[in-house]
Amino acid sequence: MNDRKVRRRRRSGNGLVDVLNAFLTLLVIGLVVVGGGAFFVASQYYGEGPNPEQRVFRVESGNGLSTIAQRLEEQGFVSNSLIFSQFGSRVEDSSVVKAGDFNIAANASMSDILKELTTGNPLRYAVTIPEGWTVWQAVDRINDDDQLTGSIDQLPQEGSILPGSYDYLPGDTRQSVLDKMQVAMTQALAEVWETREPDLPLDSPAELLILASIVEKETGVATERPQVAAVFVNRLREGMRLQSDPTIIYGITLGQSTLDRGIRRSEIEAQTPYNTYQIDRLPPTPIANPGIDALRAVANPDEHDYLYFVAKGATPREGHVFAETYAEHQQNVARYREIAAEAAAQSEAEAETARQALEAEEAADAPQ
């Protein structure tokens, strides 16, 4: 009887141990499975990716991380979209992805890719319009950009574009880029008009824009713009004609070509709406798209009594010399003509030297 009780107690004790052993075994197995799974996920996330070469990946505006992960897997950048989106969103500092095109390095890990999409800089696509270009030149450049879609079939108003660089995403329409340029000019012109000198001889923002376009075409030296603007403002106050050569050229080309020659006497004397040698005050529209500095120069010109200016040297970058009287201006013009004649003679001499050298080279190579 006693032996039977002892055996029962032994069985009872052994059963508890068995249960504990089984529990511990399951616990260890669970830890191994969990640990192994975690190791697998981490190795997939931080290890080399399947993409064998550097490629561009595009993030569309409004795409969430799950959508981006699926597209990355479909395009061969990552091996598992679920790991990328779920694990990445928990271990990285940010999972807010930017829109745009991104350069993804060859064999980039999921971690590297997510960091690039959240903290890197998208590739920049932009259209740049130089100061002083006409709308014809600007639209031609926009239409030539093969990353844009659609077309611009009608030229906008001259002077309605603010020069500068405008970013876009590939696939944007050409019209949307043009719209940005025009909105920028509208805003810039309104702001400059509000800060103008109160006694300017200009009646509207449109007149300021027209004069700024003339200033822009008259000088390629940025620091001269306020000085040149003041000459034209002084002329308007004195009731003098502006007598600007670029206005003659615009009357000939209407901004839709370039004049690759000098202005003829007949063109100076021609009656066109843009020829400021023949008309009073301003032409009917701008003759180009002025930049923000030209607008500001007209709104706040220098204070001086100059009424004339002429080129200082043979190239535009040398700037101009200014005069208060016509007699002084004529002296400056005579000096300019001497400089221009010397530059032309020097250019012709250099061309002749080059021709002679070419002839000598060909003669040396010819059979004797």
UniProtKB/TrEMBL annotation:
It is a single-pass membrane protein. The record marks E218 as: Important for catalytic activity. Its EC number is 4.2.2.29. Its main location: membrane. This is Endolytic murein transglycosylase. GO terms for molecular function: lytic endotransglycosylase activity. InterPro entries: MLTG-like (IPR003770). The keyword Transmembrane applies. PANTHER family: ENDOLYTIC MUREIN TRANSGLYCOSYLASE. It comes from Devosia aurantiaca. Belongs to the transglycosylase MltG family. Residues 344-368 are annotated as: Disordered. It is found in: Cell inner membrane.
